[in-house]
Amino acid sequence: MNTAQLKLSGNMQKDAKAFNQAIIDAAKVSIPRGYRKNYKPYWTPALEKLHKDLGLLKDKLIQEPSDSNTIAYNRAQAIFKREKLKQCRENWQKTTDSLNMDKEDLFNNSWRTGCVPEVWKEAHIIPIHKNGKSKTDPISYRPISLISCVGKLLEKIINKRLVYHLETNGIIPPTQSGFRKNKTTEDQLTYFVQSIENAFQEQKSMLSVFFDLSKAFDTVWKDGLRLKLLQSNIQGTMYKWISNFLHNRTARVKLDGKYYSKQVIMKEGVPQGSAISPTLFLVYINDITSAITPYVKHTLHADDFAIWSTAEYATTAKVRVQATVDKVFKWSQDWGLTINLNKTVTTKFSLKIKERDVTLTMNGQPLPTEDTPTFLGITLDKRLTWKPHIQKINQKAICRSQIMKKLSGTKWGANSKILRQVYQGYMIHQTSHGICITCLEYSSNIQPHIPFQDSESESQDSPWSHQINANQRTTQTSRNGHS
User: Fold this and answer.
1) Between residues 383 and 4, which one has the greater pLDDT?
2) H or E element, residue 349
3) Strand, coil or helix: what is 56?
4) What are the E-state strand segments in 286-325?
5) Which residues sit opposite 124 in a β-bridge?
6) pLDDT number for residue 41
7) Region Disordered: start and end of each range (predicted)?
8) Could you read off the pLDDT of 387-445 as tens digits, one per residue?
9) C-alpha pair distances (Å), 278 with each of 129, 217, 299
10) What is the pLDDT at residue 38?
11) Partners of 265 in the beta sheet?
């Protein structure tokens, strides 16, 4: 077994490049390449036997379709994949085992000196075209930033220390749920919706504003972030390393393996694709809560920011919320973030039939009023009936179910495992978001879901139904076998 060899020189920049090259050389040895199709370094006699047995079971399943043959094939396939992954992992570990000490020395040197190698600061931007957009317009492309995986590994280590400092000292407020352990969007949604319910029970009105920050991550003022790090008592080696991490970062567009742009220095923003960038952004946006005035509540999920106030009269709530809107706008100007006035909307939640509408302004411009705003993936309405949200989810579910049907078939369709993965990731994820809130509503509002469910279960003899049921039986049998 060939192992990667590396000798560090003590020069941070040269050592980082040499380490990257050693990883590439190790990958060429341990990972099969396209021009060496028959070369599989991880292949063992045990894998060869499992592969042959899997082929025999597959042929038997095709010739004699049955539940027992399906279960046997699925079990053999799972065992083969598990063993193959194990061998791949062990082979890679043996090949790169000699680099572990070099990696540790490289990381320690970077941490002690507070210096991040230039090769770790370079980003390759891969433009992904947005469907239905003009290919000649740069705005029609979504930039995907790829940075050094070795550098990201050190970022994760340092980020863990940074998060520990922020959490143990209570620097990040409890109203912030973005990029935090054991916190989700549903925490904020529950808090927000409960405030609406409380207002309805007290026969009051609730006036809210949903802010939209334009390109928040890309427009972070780096010197301002450094100041906020110091204000958060992040000093010494940690501050020095993060400050150098932000300094002189570069990027260039890469397409089809070739560079199509000159290297440019990213003067503003936290780097995309970085492991520590989300935490740095939380530090930067943390003091936006200082703009909250009395009798106004707020919720924050990364850069998704909402404020509201409850009062007996909407005009009273307007005075309170307007004061906060003015302070938030001033805060955004002070720290270089842009609030999109066209996408920042206001909504009045109330059960009152006769009540005068109110208008909020920002920078002298009236904010748009939206009766059905979307917040954290949930469509709300001013009387909180959930009908617009459920109708939208039902329409998406029906469209996606049609795609699922196209993937099913006894002869040409995808196997049960693929169908189940697609169903869970493509269907369940979409329809179950926020269900802990919407499931508490009246059955009359949930009714639109029923036709969709019936349409999927009306034919128990469909190929899709057979394969999903077979997969469920396989899973249940496997669980019983391990119990």
Assistant:
1) 383
2) strand 345-349
3) helix
4) 297-301, 304-311
5) 146, 252
6) 76
7) 450-483
8) 999 888 888 888 888 888 878 766 777 777 788 888 888 888 777 887 877 765 544 45
9) 25, 9, 18
10) 54
11) 250
Give the separation between CA 189 and CA 395, rounded to whole angstroms.
22
DSSP assignments along 378-407, one per residue: EE--TT---HHHHHHHHHHHHHHHHHHHHH
Query: Token pair for residue 472?
Result: 């469920």
Whole-model pTM?
Answer: 0.82
The answer for residues whose C-beta is within 8 angstroms of residue 415's C-beta and 6 or more apart is 467
Which pLDDT belongs to residue 406? 79
Rounded (5°) CA angle 225-289-249: 20
| SS3 assignment, position 346 | strand
Neighbours of 246 (CB within 10 A): 24
In this structure, what token pair is assigned to residue 359? Answer: 């208008």
Question: Can you count the helices (H) and strands (E) in the chain?
Answer: 18, 15
Residues 381, 372: Cα–Cα separation, whole Å: 4
Neighbouring CB atoms inside 10 A of 359's CB total: 11
In one-letter notation, the amino acid at residue 22 is A
Structure tokens at 207: 């006036």
Q: Which amino acid is at 385?
A: T
- What residues are paired with 142 via a beta bridge? 128
What is the separation of C-alpha 68 from the centre of its chain, rounded to a whole number of angstroms?
39
